[in-house]
Amino acid sequence: MTFEGRESTGNGYAESRQLWEQFLGGDLEAWERIFTLFYKDLYGYGLKLSARPELTKDCIQELFVVLWERRDHLDEVQSIKAYLLASLRRKLLKRLKKKRKHFTSLEQEDTSHSVDIQFSPEELIIKRERENSKLQALYEAFDALPDRQKEVLYLKYFNGMSYEEIQEILEISYQSIRNHIYRAVKRLRNILNENISEITISLLPFLFSFLFGI
Amino acid sequence: MEGNSITVQHLCSDPSFIRWVEGRATQNEEKSWNEWVQKNEENRRLAIEAQQRISGFVFDEPALPDVQEEWSKVHHRVTAKEQAEAKVTNLGNGKSWDAVSVLYKVAAVLLVGAFVGFAAYIFQESNQVKQEVAVHTVTTDYGETKTLNLSDGSQIILAANSQLSFKENWLEQPTKRLSLDGEAFFAVAPKKAKTHPKLEVETEDGTASVWGTRFTVDTYVEGTRVVLEEGEVEVRTIQDKRMTMNPGEMATFQKESSEIQLQKVNPRVYTSWSTNELFFDDTPLSVLVNRIKRTYGVKVKVQNPEILRKKLSGSVDFKSLDGLTDAVAKIFDIQIEQSEDGLIINNNKKG
Asked: SUPFAM superfamilies annotated for this entry (chain A) (predicted)?
């Protein structure tokens, strides 16, 4: 198929653009629309990063108060969703870092400056019930991925973000996002491949189609 | 294929899309799928579903909190702040009081236990008049000051992280009463007849009554501290102990004790913040550190506590935390580092 064929109608883009402009112009109702539209994504992502519901709720609240107050100084954004996720991520990590520093100084450990986020492996759900036997293997495989790879996969598969948007959110290079996705998928596929022998034959054609893109 | 008929099924069987999902796509493929997914929320929804089918797993949806309730908190904070700001700008011209009455509900929420003395006072008053009088509150955040210009030429400057409350009709009263939690500077225009005080500032420890004067009140330390720069102030503790202050004096009093401590000070050290500078007169660094803490809400870590005893005279710019730390570092010949956690003060290694 050709790429031209992928054009889809639907005015979601134009609509959210318009919402953002209304918000910049001081329309509190538009701001509420944006809040409701993206709350699930923000909260889900925040939980993955921090595993702390109260902190996440707090940061989202704060984010929407602060952005509202600064709306005169804000610009057009390419992608509202990416912008909000990126802002929430910064805010959360800052708060988590503070807490962690506090703890490490209490325990007299040396304070390393690396920001290792606790990407808690929340419930992964296998799409098809028949594959439940793989669940444990997938859990373990996913859990064993480096944090960055988990985060990239999460943003891509769960939030449907483009590579560029992920780049904006994580503030890392485009190429490294490519690498992260490629490596994560490869590792997951390896694990699942090993598992294939244990899965009933009837599943095989199905599995191949989604694992290898045939 | 029709332009708008793309389905999850199509995506799942499109090798180019699968390559994009798995990070194996060519640059051109990547570019167009990136653009496609960003184009609108419907495309994004399709992409999410297709990717989950291709990968074979999904992430569990979080148990969402009450989004409506979360929004109402944001809404409340946003509107409360804007109304408070609108009121401060309105104070000067004295005619926009109607707009101010909107604030009543918000102010009532903000008033907490710290204002016991004041609450009792309102209660008394309202019994006499048999009607409730609205209370207004002006608050400041860290790093922020607000100036209230009254129509008679008096000026009140509220320091950072402070709160000032007053009743709706306070300006019409012969004695204007205010309640303070935090710190404020008052420059009150003198009054001819001295039958009653011009202004009264209440804290939880007592009251400062004023007949035209320049002074500061703060409640940051244990108890309340009043520093008089010019004019005449009478302080009265909550236990009804009274004392008249002279310029250049600092009175300190607590609600638990009936004593008022009086001390000779250079008032500029205590009032200069109101003009965006800080003045010291043989003042130890510790005093300055305390002021930075409560003004900007930052933590300050001092590596060598000996430094805190360094004394110095001079003045520094107080407008921004950056300007302030630069100047203080120079004057005291120390190093001040800004970190995520706050300020870290060190001996100057070069020195």
From this structure: Sigma2 domain of RNA polymerase sigma factors (SSF88946), Sigma3 and sigma4 domains of RNA polymerase sigma factors (SSF88659)
Interval B195-249: pLDDT, tens: 566 678 888 888 887 766 777 888 776 788 888 888 778 888 888 888 888 888 8
pLDDT at A47 over 80: yes
The predicted pLDDT at position A67 comes to 92
**Residues sharing a CB contact under 8 Å with residue A182, sequence separation 6 or more, in sequence order:** B22, B23, B24
Q: Of the CATH numbers 1.10.340.30, 3.30.70.2190, 2.60.120.1440, 3.40.50.10860, which one belongs to the domain with range B69-269? A: 2.60.120.1440
Closest C-alpha among A101, A103, A147 to residue A121: A147
Inter-residue contact B246 to B230 (CB < 8 Å): no
Check residue B121 and give its pLDDT: 35
Q: Is the pLDDT of residue B258 over 50?
A: yes
**CATH number of the domain bearing residue A160:** 1.10.10.10
Taking the CA of residue A189 and the nearest CA in chain B, the distance in Å comes to 9
Q: Shortest Cα distance from A69 to chain B (angstroms)?
A: 8
Contact at CB, B77 and A61, closer than 8 angstroms: yes
Residue B70's contacts (CB-CB under 8 Å, 6 or more residues apart) are: A35, A39, A57, A60, A61
Decide if A58 is inside a domain. yes
**Residue A123 in domain:** no
Q: Where are the domains of chain B?
A: 8-55, 69-269, 276-347
From the list B47, B57, B77, which residue is nearest A127 (CB)?
B57
Same domain, A17 and A99: yes
CA distance B30 to chain A (A): 8
CB of B312 within 8 Å of a chain A CB? The answer is no
This complex has an ipTM of 0.71
Partner A contacted by B317 (CB < 8 A): no
* Predicted local distance difference test score (pLDDT) of residue A39: 94
CATH topology of domain B276-347: Phage tail protein beta-alpha-beta fold (3.55.50)
CATH number at residue A80: 1.10.1740.10
HSE-up of residue B109 (Cα within 13 Å, Cβ side): 8
Confidence of residue A106 (pLDDT cuts 50, 70, 90): very low
Domain that holds residue A38: 10-106
Task: Enumerate residues 28 to 67 of chain A having a beta carbon within 8 A of any beta carbon in chain B.
Answer: 28, 32, 35-36, 39-40, 43-44, 47-48, 53, 57, 60-61, 64-65
The reported pLDDT for the residue numbered B191 is 58
What is the per-residue pLDDT for A97?
73
Q: For residues B305 and B309, what is the distance between their CA atoms, to the nearest angstrom? A: 8
| CB pair distance less than 8 Å for B37 and A160 | yes
